[in-house]
Amino acid sequence: MRKFSITGVAALSLLLLMSCGQSREAAVEVAAAPTNEETVEKAILGEEVAATLKYLSSDELQGRATGTDGIELAAQYIEQYFQTHELKPFFETYRDSFDVKGVTGYNLIGLVEGTDPKLKDQYIIVGAHYDHVGRAKAVEGDSLANGANDNASGTTAVLELAKFFADNPPRRSMLFTLFSAEEMGLVGAKELAKRLKAENLDLYTMFNIEMIGVPMKERDFKAYITGYDMSNLAEKFNEYSGEKILGFLPQAKEYSLFQRSDNYPFYQEFKVPAQTISTFDFSNYPYYHHVDDEFERMDPKHMENLIEAVIPGLAAMANTSQKEIKLKESL
């Protein structure tokens, strides 16, 4: 059985229940408060962020193209990570397989089951794609595209968040999902979204993470969110966090980024808030799909800070009694 630490959010709930004689329902409401900062800082360690990112973007994984031996190594790493931190498989195993252009791709899904009998059948998906392009235009004889920013960085963040919430399970259930074949047209996300819709999954929100390896410059927020105007996710997320974590980037709308990452199939199938956060802003990193997208160009300390910064917002989303994140057309 997973060890549960009575800290942060849970401690507040327990303290009020014991000292004030509140009803159980009223006490649980406190679980929507921001997560204890010390708990988060102890859970997210820069050296662990760097170690995961370094392995996933190493030459050994050969650019993680779908259907290759390299991405199989990445899949095995993710499976071991889920197992080590006691996430449950959502299906019979962590793998959800599909066929794409004559090869087999694997999504990987780990479950943190919610603690509330009424809310645990509602789900939040936290996702990122773990595949990359494999090879790219050669530079000085190097054609291996390691994909550190795209998207070993997002994969690393999902794994760190999975570890945190496995140790601090919220009221709603959470699926930590790594997609394959994103680079082939969002294929893995499309396949999983269709499967979950067919199984009548009650999806609350989908929170996707894409290219967060370097910080933005001269912004008053930590990451931008695609589809900013489509929902109140950014507004509520910042409210939950007590600071401006998510903001609007004009280029995200200009280049239709909402439709170009793994959030989009979930929006199409479920018509719920399904959006991507990123710090790649077209001016801070010139190595998109480039052989120089390497670990050495990443900023693990920035990643550590960003992962820590999104935890309070995600924790509140997973704990509120009502579904407060909504599409603008539903408000």
Spatial extent as radius of gyration: 19 Å
> What's the story with the biggest beta sheet?
9 strands, mixed
- Content of β-strand: 15-25%
Q: What is the level-2 CATH architecture name?
A: 3-Layer(aba) Sandwich
In round numbers, the mean pLDDT is 91
Query: Looking at CATH, which topology would you report?
Result: Aminopeptidase
Give the helix/strand class.
Answer: alpha/beta
CATH superfamily: Zn peptidases
Cα(first) to Cα(last) distance is 40 Å
Number of helices: 11
Number of domains: 1
Q: What coarse outline follows from CA principal-axis ratios? A: globular
Number of strands: 11
Taken in chain order, the helices and strands follow as HHHHHEEEEEEHEHEEHEHHEH
CATH classification, class level = Alpha Beta
